[in-house]
Every structure is written in structure tokens, then in C-alpha cells.
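User: What would this chain look like folded?
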Amino acid sequence: MANSHCHECVLRGDKEVNADATRWKRLRQSLLCPPGVKLGRACTFLLVFPLVWIAGYGLTGHEMLLDGNLFKIYIIFFACLLGGWLMEIIRLPGLLGMIIVGMIFGNLKHQISWMEHPIQHGWSGKIRGVALVVILIRAGLGLNPEQLRRLSLMVARLAFVPSTVEAIIVACVSNLILGLRWAWAFTLGFALAAVSPAIVVPYMLKIQENGYGVDKGIPTLLLAASSLNDVFSIWAFLVFLGITFSQRSFVMQTIMPFVEVLLGFLYGIVIGIILWFIPNRKDNFALAEIRSILLLIGGIASYFGSISIKMHSAGALGALTLAFVASYGWRRQGYKQDNPVSLNFNFLWFIFQPLLFGLVGAELDFLKIKLTTVRYGLIVIFIGLLFRCCGAFVVLSGGNLNVKEKLFVAFSWLPKATVQAAVGSNALDAALALTDPNPQHIEWGQDILTIAVMAILVSAPIGATFIRSVSTNSPVNASDTSIAIPE
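Assistant: Here's the prediction, encoded as C-alpha cells.
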């Protein structure tokens, strides 16, 4: 009897706390077993944190000690998760907390002896490369062929025109005030040209669930265009990055981007079609998991294989095409919006997101940043954003959107984060990887990384705050599904 009473004291049971219960009663209820959702997440974090270290030490030994690369990655990962959670508490994108934590850890080498030797560049670069592959595959899986056909013209205009306008303006301004050569200037331009799906997609899904703008296809338009925009910006960035460091003749530099596009498409189409049939769709043994593993391996092989043969842009395009073609076949076989492969990659992104933003933040050395780069970088960023918004507003003219809805789309096109974190340090990595590094190229690579991180810190909170204000201020009314812009 006493034992039963003890169980009742610690077990939650089926009874829920009333809506008007006091804070003490709510706290008391959340401490019972099983714990509440938020407390349960905290307990999970506290449980996993030591278990991962013990497992890592058992597998690698010294790599999980203070001076080991794996230990530093382990600390950055969990610290970034915590930083992202704290940032979300104050209703800002979690990725801001992750990148700030990374910046702090990256500069601890000037203060703490065990961080004197930072994470080896090869480790950091490979992890960021895999994160980029995950981004590309998620973008490919998220493209809906039917939606693309229905909104093809407007999606194409919104995906390509504002980014191209921004890249050209950023290239011109950075050439003028930062002194970057034209190839470097366009590399920076397209590094900044991508919108952040990590910010846009969740809010668009929420707006779509509430029915805002659905009758005019606004959430669908932004979801489809954001994926294409990212791929286009990454491809153009890699093309200009290749031109920047290429030793080929002018003719070969002109032809090779088209050759790389062709090879990327061919790789993605061939491997994607193979994944329609292998494994057999009637195989009940972990079908979605095996498809996810094959897709990830195919994307990694495309991206890193293309780097090894000096065809950087072919790999990114191949990974995206592979995911899109495979997803197209799986849709015809029965996968719909609840694609289990997409859900698996959402979980992968949960792992790689803190690593990506933490490691790119760690690349930023405060002692190497010049104040002129910060000052002129902010000018470059804001001028680019201004022309980007204007370009997005103009390309929507002639459609069925009213002025407020065009403004909503234009401002939703502001936030930058994911792609900038994934490619921001590539130019610096390429400059450092040369047999005889050019100090000027290293300086320009550092400038591009600095401006890419600044673009995240500036645009992500502005864009997220705006989109959130719209989603919370729009009236929930089945008869009024237009977008309501706060006055």
C-alpha cells in the first residue's frame, strides 16, 4: 500500500493540470515522471552529453581528451545546441546562438591554452562539406514537380532574378570599395545571394497551415523558389570560385561551367533513376532508411568526387539533381508530403546544423578582422539587400498579388544563414590549400568569410522577426486568407 502511494507521488498519471493552475502546481506536475516536454529535453541533453564523451573516448582514446580534435568538435556541438536553445527562448533564430558560440570558441585560442591549437582545417572542412550535401539533398527532396509546373514562371523569376541582381550589385560595390578583383567580387556576390531555408521554410509551413495566402500560392511560391535560389547561388558561387583559382586558359574557363552543369545533371539523373528500383519498393526491411543512406552516400560521392577532379560546381548540382530525381520517382510510388526520407534528412540536419554554424563561426578570428572590412562590409550587405528587395518586388509585378503581398515576399527574401555558413569559408580554404599561398588571396578569402558571417548576423534576425510578426498578426479567419502586413 505504501509502495503504491509512493508511485502515485512520483508518477504523472493521466491527470492533466488545469489551465488556471498556479505556477507551483505546473512546476510540480512537470517534475513528475515522465517529465514534461521541456524538462524532458533538458534531461535528454544532460544524459546524452556524458554518454557521447564516454563512447567517443572508448572508440578514439586521445581524440576525446582536451587537445583532441574530436573533443573540440564535441564541445562545440553541445555548446551550439545550448546556444541555439537559449536564442530561441528570446524568439530569435537558434542559428544565431550557434554561430555566436562558434565565434567565441574560435577565439578562445587567444585566452585558453587547450584551445591554442584549433580544430584541424581538414576536419572542419569535411564536416562543413557534408553539411552542404545535406542542405542540397533536403532542397532536392523539397521540390514538388507539380507545384513547379503550376508556378513555374513566377518561381523561376523569384529564384533567379533578385539573387542575380544582388550578386551583380554586391560585386560592383565590393570591387569599388573593397578592391576585390572581379572574379573574387562575384564569388562574394553569389555567396551572399542565397536565401536561408532554415528561416524561411519553417515560417512558410506555419503560414501555410494557417491558410494565409494559400489561395494565391504564396507559401508554395516561396518554398519552391527558396530551394531553387539556394542551388543557383551555390552553383554560381562554385563557378566563380573555380574561375578564381583556375589555371586553365580563358576558353576552357568559359566552356567548363557548362560541362560541369552537364556532368552534374547526368550524374544526378542516372543515380536518381537507379534509386527508383534499388532497393525494391516492396522490400519491407528498412526501405526509407536504406534509401536515405544511399542518397547521402550518392550526394557525398558527387560533391567530394567533383572536388577531387577540380569540377566543384558539378558536385553540388549532382547532389541536388540526384535528390530531386529520386524523390520524383518515389512520389509516383506513393510517397507524398510525409516522405520518410525527408524526415530522416530533417534529423540529419538537426545534427549538422550546430556543427555547420559552430565551425564557420570558429573560423572567424577577431584579431585578423580589419575594421575597414566590417565598415565597408556592412555597406555592401545593406546595398545588396536593398536591391534584392526591389528586384523581388518588381519580378512579382503583373501577377495576382497585391502590394502588401509583394512586400511580404520581398522582405521574406531577406534572411541569409544556411548557404552563407556552408560556403562562406570556401574561398579562404581554397587560398590556404594552394602549394604557394598568395597573401592577398588569403586576405580576400578572410574578407569574404567575415562579410558572410556579418550577413547572417544582420539579415537573419531582421527577416525572421518580420515573417514571425506577419504569421502572428494575421487574423485566423477562414474567410480572410490574405497576408496581413503590420502597419
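Residues 30-114 form one domain. If you want, I can go into more detail on any region.
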